[in-house]
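Notebook, bench 3.
Goal today: get a predicted structure for Molybdate transport system ATP-binding protein from Comamonas odontotermitis so we can plan the truncation constructs. The sequence was checked against the plasmid map this morning, with no discrepancies at the termini. Length recorded as 375 residues. Pasting the sequence as submitted so the record is complete.
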Amino acid sequence: MNESSTSQGIRARLQLQRSDFVLDVDLKLPGQGVTALFGPSGCGKTSLLRSMAGLERARGAVAVNGHVWQDDATRQWLPTHQRALGYVFQEASLFPHLTAEGNIRYGLRRAPASRQSIALEQIIDLLGIAHLLARRPATLSGGERQRVAIARALATSPRVLLMDEPLSALDAERKAEVLPYLDKLSERLALPVLYVSHSIDEVSRLADQILLMQAGRVVAQGEVADVLTRMDAPLTRSLPGDQQASIMEGRVCAHDAQDHLWSMQIGAHTAHQLHWTEPEAHYQPEERVRLRILARDVSLSLAPHTGSSILNSLPAMVTGVQASGPGQVLVQLRLAPGNADTHLLALVSARSARLLQIAPGMAVHAQLKSVAVLH
């Protein structure tokens, strides 16, 4: 691995051979933010994470923000305990004889003083666990145990945080408890996070980048909002119609206190605003917000719609059309004018697409029946 490949960012070139499986990847990932590893069971997500951690002895090279952990060409190899990483598993795996604070301080002792960059108080505040410190794991809920496990991983002051389906063992209520804390991690700590998940909802909410895997190889990679709406991406084609969705990000630009209505500006064009009702929210002006729009909640018209309860209607250009199950068509849109990189998916009936003669290059208006605020 040459010097240019070990600068800022994560570089991993790995091959792992098993009797029934081959992992073969060559990755260059951002040095901060959340990158989701997504794909079907058995595609190699966990094997990739374990190989980067040194828990599996794959062939190749691994470097994180300029620090080489493995380079077989120059016979460099750091065992797992010498790699500056935090690892969060599906189960919290806390030491039952230690309190929550004792578990976190165990992680703190793993980091040499020269590398300690995250204060214990910052971690405790970030994960909202001050009231749990004196308790033992057996007295904590599943969500509380997982937050303590994340705190223990962060206490090592890692250069990368590896998370292997950290919410999969939790029920919906406990997941909802933990997700707001995960939202804050990479933003507050400027820390790269590799996040394995089977849940497209988690990926949509948390990830900046997505890496789609199949049969041990990477088949798509890029910004999550782009990969989710690409007609040629395997992810778009593989998701069932009720999970196909778009992600849009923008900044809060207005608030109507009487109607509890918030508005978000997408890009620079004033025609591109989204509105939603959220009575308990307290956003700041210019605060960044991410919304998820299900394709089934987007309808199309050839003219601006009036006399409707639908709040959101965006001018757009059709950029792609493809069949999506019996009697349904998936339409890819680009917001117009401007915002060339902002795409939206609409799932409409085949009959509607035929009657409206929907085709690439056509100007339409996308009507959004509802949006979901992710963060």
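The CA atoms of residues 1 and 74 lie 8 Å apart. The chain has a mean pLDDT of 89.
Flagging this for group meeting.
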